[in-house]
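$ run holo --ligand "S-adenosylmethionine" --emit tokens
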Amino acid sequence: MNCFQIIKSVLDEAYNEIPGDEAGKDNDIKDAFEYLRTNYSQLWNQNKIDYSNSITRFAYIYVYVTSHANLVCSLIQQKEDLCKLFDNNKVDVACIGGGPGSDFLGILKYLITNQKSPDATFQLCDREATWAESWIDVHKKVDPKFRISTSYLPLDVTHPDSWKPFTKYFQSDIFTMIYFMSEVFALRESAEEYFATIFSKAKPGSFFLFIDNNAAQFYNWFDALAKTHNIKIIDSGERKEWLPYHEEKSDLGRYFQKFSSPKITANIAYRIGKKMS
Ligand SMILES: C[S@@+](CC[C@H](N)C(=O)[O-])C[C@H]1O[C@@H](n2cnc3c(N)ncnc32)[C@H](O)[C@@H]1O
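-- output --
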């Protein structure tokens, strides 16, 4: 399966989990699109989004995951240092706030497109445990020549008791933070210790890939952490992206007919950082 066929199969599983008849489910899903859109416009001062409901998770995967995966893939593709990372035999990836799978799928899309097959492990670090249902068996859907494995780390970056027990993933080769810092921005006082820890414990030579809403308060936070913890920004930008959706359109099948198209434009800020000694 390609990435969008994988997303389609995950959507099918999530859709089947939603109780009720088709018309009722579709209405609930459309309400969830609105719920997410409204909450994302208020992230600078509140964090209230609850992904524990299967309807909200379906809505998130449908609207945002394809788009964010495309962003991750295209940023890797444009940066030689990141392309080279995936020439190694083994790559460990930590996806911070990566429960919905976008970060992982973006990298998988890059690997499939470029026919690279390192032994790749993905740790999806997220406070919402139910995301794990979607991705835990994903290796079975991918051509076995791509040697990938995913595992889920249940951690809440605002609760030290939940994140402090996990330390091995600090040795990852790349940390992705895709639309995550904006999500916890309103709780930054409680999250500060987590970010200071991960930025300081990351091993020399490891990469940070940050993509988020193009708003200074979010990328300034990342930039300040990078500066304090000796992470050199090797590429950065703020710009609008138009995402190709012909591939998704054919692969996401019937959901395209039922619902409006997933997110196809994104006003992003991105940073690619490298941890120095
Ligand atoms: C907007 S989504 C981004 C997901 C993914 N990286 C992407 O680009 O599609 C934010 C994610 O952060 C997770 N999250 C929110 N608050 C969190 C916290 N305090 N600790 C850990 N994860 C959190 C949510 O469960 C959700 O999966």
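-- notes --
The pocket of S-adenosylmethionine is lined by residues 51, 64-65, 68, 97-100, 102-103, 126-128, 156-158, 178-180, 183-184 (CB under 6 Å).
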